[in-house]
Recover the amino acids of this structure.
């Protein structure tokens, strides 16, 4: 039987699927390599540790999610940014379960390489800039109250609306978009 070659993406996908099903704590070197049928050495050839693997899972998923969100803010379409969450969840259910049911701190442990730390910092700045832009454009400033409103309408409400469906492992129905839109207009309007 020919030897199977594994890619970084194989390990990331296996870890993401395990995290979606049982949380980040369920992701171990053994669980990932067993899921893939890969030798442990193949894992360590790609990742220095479980912690580095989990950090990459979180960051890659965060960046994939936030691309559409940030683009909507840059286009001046706050409603599209708020609706991005349920729309993305429907298209990326497993990624969404791993990303939105857990906090970054559930994935962030141990010592990360500097390049990974730098990527996380850049990701955080990009999202913070999007919230500030929306707060300034919509609420007239970037003070604590304006930023709190921005985070609430763009992130907290959509995440709360999709949460019950993610916990059940099902895509949110269209009424979620309606509820997010209604809340958005009540706060912004």
């Amino acid at each position: 039987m020919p030897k199977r070659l594994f890619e970084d993406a194989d390990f990331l996908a296996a870890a993401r699927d395990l995290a979606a099903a049982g949380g980040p704590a369920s992701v171990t070197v053994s669980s990932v390599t067993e899921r893939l049928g890969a030798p442990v050495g193949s894992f360590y050839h790609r990742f220095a540790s479980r912690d580095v693997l989990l950090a990459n899972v979180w960051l890659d998923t965060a960046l994939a999610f936030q691309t559409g969100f940030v683009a909507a803010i840059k286009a001046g379409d706050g409603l599209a940014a708020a609706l991005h969450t349920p729309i993305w969840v429907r298209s990326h259910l497993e990624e969404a379960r791993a990303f939105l049911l857990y906090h970054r701190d559930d994935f962030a442990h141990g010592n990360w390489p500097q390049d990974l730390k730098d990527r996380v910092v850049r990701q955080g700045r990009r999202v913070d800039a999007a919230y500030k832009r929306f707060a300034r454009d919509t609420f007239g400033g970037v003070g604590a109250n304006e930023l709190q409103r921005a985070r609430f309408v763009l992130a907290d409400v959509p995440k709360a609306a999709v949460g019950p469906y993610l916990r059940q492992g099902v895509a949110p129905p269209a009424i979620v978009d309606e509820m997010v839109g209604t809340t958005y207009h009540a706060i912004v309007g």
User: Anything to note?
Assistant: The chain has a mean pLDDT of 92. Residues 23 and 160 are 18 Å apart (CA to CA). The chain has one domain: 8-188.
